[in-house]
Design goal:
Blueprint lengths: L1 H5 E3 L7 H4 L1 H11 L7 E4 L1 H10 L3 H9 L6 H17 L4 H12 L8 E9 L17 E4 L2 H13 L4 H9 L8 E8 L5 E6 L10 E8 L13 E6 L5 E5 L5 E5 L8 E5 L12 H18 L3 E8 L2 E9 L11 E2 L3 E2 L10 E3 L3 H4 L6 H14 L11 E4 L2 E5 H6 L4 H8 L18 H5 L3 H35 L3 H28 L5 H12 L1 H7 L15 H11 L4 H8 L20 H5 L9 H22 L4 H43 L10 H8 L9 H12 L7 E3 L4 H5 L8 E3 L12 E2 L1 E4 L2 E8 L14 E4 L15 E4 L7 H8 L4 E3 L4 H4 L5 E5 L4 E6 L15
Helix pairs in contact: 5-6, 6-8, 6-9, 12-17, 16-17, 16-24, 17-24, 18-19, 19-23, 20-21, 24-25
């Protein structure tokens, strides 16, 4: 009876989630069904409860957990450390230790190697149940002998009280006293190869395909981040491999007997194996068939961890897919709408700066699914399992600064990429799990640097070929006559092209090792602010193309000058615009009247070519003064600025080609709508659902009505704050009074507008006095008169055609590395960005002074009351 209470055979019928945890129960079901699950047994949650009661630990644990302040990570870390010491010192009572020893003896000899893995039963906060290999609790591998096994079980139990687990429960109102943990003990598979598979194939083909990742050695993530696994796409039903990518694999994880290694160590892979496929087509097909059985048994898409030993596959863990084909959108709620809100489960700090500037609109579900794919492929931090560094708040793209900071970004780097935070706002750090987890997941610097160099070496050829390749792809998409052909085109051509472009964009960005903030600070110490700013302009070499971010505005000026035809402009820059990420919006090249609306009138003086030439003269003069006063620092300055300028040039060129591919992605969705007969309904499906629809599964269409209503509902709201802390309800916020556009704190939801002077990031030096023109959308460009100061929510590429007619630029969101800021600097346009609430506090007709060097905006005189124009509101 005691053995049945505290220990269960692995495939026992009583191994249900309340008894052994969800992960243990999944393995029990799979083992009972005859799937190749390594032999083992469960240590039940009841054993954990008995242990903490008999050892007298429960009261002490709960007392320490109760003192944890989730906003002060140090308190959780201290509690976790002390609780771990309590578990380490306490012995298992004979009633538990005896059955564990007995069951262990049944697996093999006295040193039989086992893996000891946790399986939470209760006390997990909502939304934290991720894949079993995400490192939420401690697993111990390569355990040999009874004493080591009992210690490993205690260690698994102790990890229920890791700093991260305590913080999550405290923050989400989960009763700490309800927390419990089962433990799965299994024969250790000496894996020749291992990996994961998702039966929903989140980026490669929807429900009809399985994504398999594989590498040499064990599947535990010791080498994760240092090793890019091979990837295969397996077609369900046939087992046919319809896509494959073979990666370089320099290290592998192997079992270790040294307890300091936690059961795993790294070993170099022989050079002859590094680029050899881990799996052949037959092995991939066998894994695919196993994944299909698992999905059928569980009745839902599953993430599976597997291992291969002497040609035989084994299932190590399985859980519901982290991101199902629903595309990470919430399930429908009352009223026939959905909730799109990633602030609900975590107390984090979110910002619209950085990537959010380039995605200014409420996104359709299709766009959101592609933006997620883009973020995972082009930003390493966004690809960490369970640690997504971006989110959807009411349909708008926000970056999770709490996760960015927890991954090691300093305040200066965050301000440079995402913009300045409101005064007094600090970033609550997200908890990323046990010590060392992030170091294991993130690429090591040397490895990342090698990959970046390889990407940059390929970048020139890619940039030269990408426009023609993209045009050919759009033509093939338009010529496709059946859904199956369009589906093949996606898997074989469009998706690999898109992912390759995203990887190259990341590689291009890594070269800018010297931050613009640090570089500018060094130059300012030697040359002063205005000259430092001027020396960092004129980033293109003589005869070389201008920065890609300047392409649209310079191209329009050249069309007006008669130096470039309209067709020539549209071929080169017709993919760039204010809504270039949104799949539902036509590109400028699709609108015959767009270019004529943008062209400056003859004699208007809105000539970007002349402005850029004038700024280059300013830059040359600054360099002459620098040579006169610091001749011995010239080589240093040219080397540092040259390296940084090349990085900016490469990154902007790569970003432009990614946007060109987004045009091809739009063409794919439009054609899919035509071939399926469902037209613009497809904008309200995720890309995986569109692929499923092309594959004959019409069920995703059931989601369209609710999502369409949700999209229109969020789209009708006023813009959200630039920075958000904690839970945020867009609908409630939009109906409140005294809203602040710079910052919303869940603890102070009614905080009114601040009366402090407007401050932001001084992006481009220069002092200008002039009259304000508030423009909320680029489509309202006609309201901006020459010489007015442009006050806007942001300044992405779509805003750059307005720059030549503006005297200065002031924005709510923005950062020194934002593409629009780079364009303003190259045109010599004084700019203060990231002010937070400039569009709220300033009105058209106000007279202000903009100091682009100091980042200050001063109200000189308000417009006369009768002439002050009301703020324009968003459409809808």
């Amino acid at each position: 009876m005691t053995q049945r209470t505290f220990v269960l055979p692995l495939d026992d019928a009583a191994a249900e989630p309340p008894v052994v945890g969800a992960k243990g129960a999944a393995l029990a079901r799979l083992g009972a069904a005859g799937l190749p699950v390594p032999a083992g047994f469960h240590v039940t949650a009841e054993a954990y409860r008995e242990f903490v009661e008999r050892a007298g630990l429960r009261g002490a644990i709960l007392a320490m957990a109760a003192r944890v302040d989730p906003d002060l990570p140090v308190t959780a870390e201290a509690a976790a450390r002390r609780i771990a010491e309590l578990f380490e010192r306490a012995d298992l009572p004979t009633e538990i230790a005896g059955p564990v020893r007995w069951s262990y003896a049944g697996l093999g000899d006295r040193d039989h190697p086992v893996a000891v893995r946790p399986s939470p039963v209760a006390g997990e906060p909502p939304g934290t149940a991720g894949p079993p290999f995400a490192g939420r609790h401690d697993a111990v591998l390569g355990v040999r002998g009874e004493a080591a096994l009992l210690a490993a079980v205690r260690r698994c139990w102790a990890s229920l009280w890791s700093a991260r687990a305590i913080e999550y429960r405290a923050r989400n109102g989960v009763d700490q006293g309800e927390a419990a943990l089962g433990v799965v003990v299994q024969t250790m598979v000496p894996a020749d190869a291992a990996g994961t598979m998702s039966t929903a194939a989140p980026v490669s083909g929807g429900r009809g395909r399985i994504l398999v990742n594989a590498t040499w050695g064990l599947s535990e993530p010791v080498a994760a981040g240092r090793v890019t696994p091979d990837s295969m796409v397996v077609e369900k039903g046939t087992g046919r491999v319809v896509g494959r990518r073979v990666a370089d694999k320099p290290v592998m994880a192997v079992a270790s007997d040294d307890p300091r290694d936690h059961g795993v160590r790294e070993r170099d892979v022989p050079r002859r194996w590094r680029e050899v496929p881990v799996l052949d087509d037959g092995q991939a097909a066998e894994l695919g068939r196993m994944g299909e059985r698992i999905e059928a048994l569980c009745g839902m898409p599953m993430d599976v961890e597997w291992a291969l030993h002497e040609g035989h596959p084994y299932v190590l863990q399985a859980c519901p897919a982290e991101e199902s084909a629903a595309g990470d959108l919430s399930e429908a709620v009352g009223g026939g709408t959905e909730v799109w809100n990633d602030t609900l489960d975590v107390d984090h700090l979110w910002t619209r700066g950085g990537p959010g500037e380039a995605v200014p609109d409420v996104m359709t579900p299709c766009t959101w699914s592609l933006v997620r794919l883009f973020a995972r492929a082009s930003r390493a931090a966004s690809a960490l399992p369970g640690h997504r560094a971006y989110g959807n708040i009411g349909g708008l793209l926000y970056t999770d600064l709490s996760r960015i900071a927890a991954l090691g970004a300093g305040d200066e780097a965050i301000e440079e990429e995402y913009g300045r935070l409101p005064a007094g706002v600090r970033i609550p750090r997200a908890s990323l799990g046990a010590a060392g987890t992030v170091r294991k997941l993130l690429p090591e610097p040397a490895r990342a640097s090698r990959l970046a160099r390889g990407g940059r070496a390929r970048l020139p050829d890619f940039l030269a070929a990408a426009p023609a390749r993209c045009e050919a792809l759009r033509a093939r998409i338009g010529d496709e006559t059946d859904a199956a052909g369009l589906l093949r085109l996606w898997g074989h051509d469009l998706l690999p092209f898109f992912l390759d472009a995203c990887h190259l964009l990341e590689a291009a960005g890594r070269e800018g090792a010297t931050s613009s903030a640090a570089l500018r600070a060094d130059l300012e110490r030697l040359a002063g602010g205005p000259d430092a700013n001027a020396m960092m302009t004129g980033l293109s070499r003589p005869g070389a193309p201008a920065l890609a971010v300047l392409g649209p505005v310079l191209g329009l000026s050249r069309v007006a000058r008669g130096e470039l035809s309209m067709d020539g402009y549209l071929r080169r820059w017709g993919h760039r615009g204010p809504h270039e990420f949104e799949i539902a919006v036509p590109r400028p090249a699709e609108d015959p009247g767009w270019i004529e609306e943008q062209l400056p009138a003859p004699g208007s003086g809105w000539d970007a070519v002349e402005l850029m030439a004038a700024q280059r003269e300013v830059s040359r003069a600054a360099w002459k003064r620098f040579r006169r006063y610091h001749p011995h620092r010239m080589a240093w300055a040219r080397r540092r600025i040259g390296r940084w300028a090349q990085a900016v040039h490469d990154q902007e060129s790569a970003r432009s080609e990614v946007m060109r591919i987004f045009w091809a992605l739009r063409a794919f969705v439009v054609r899919a709508g035509e071939l399926t007969g469902h037209g613009d309904d497809l904008y309200h499906l995720t890309i995986d659902e569109i692929l499923a629809l092309l594959d004959g599964d019409a069920r995703p269409l059931e989601n369209v009505p609710a999502r369409r209503r949700t999209y229109e509902r969020y789209r009708a709201l006023a813009p959200y704050p630039a920075v958000i802390r904690g839970r945020f309800d867009p609908v409630t916020w939009a109906g409140g009074r005294g809203r602040r556009m710079d910052y919303h704190d869940a603890e102070e939801p009614l905080a009114g507008l601040t009366e402090e002077p407007l401050h932001g990031t001084g992006a481009t030096a220069g002092i200008v006095e002039g009259t304000v023109r508030v423009v909320e959308r680029p489509e309202q460009a006609w309201t901006l008169a020459a010489g007015e100061i442009l006050v806007a929510p942001a300044a992405g590429v779509g805003w750059t055609p307005l720059f030549p007619r503006a005297a200065a630029l002031v924005t709510d969101i923005g950062a020194p590395l934002s593409p629009g800021v780079v364009a303003a600097r190259e045109l010599g346009l004084p700019a203060v960005v990231g002010c937070g609430n400039a569009t709220t506090r300033l009105r058209t007709g106000d007279r202000i002074r903009v100091d682009g060097g100091r980042g200050e905006v001063e109200l000189l005189s308000p417009a006369e009351e009768g002439s002050r124009e009301p703020l324009l509101t968003t459409e809808g």
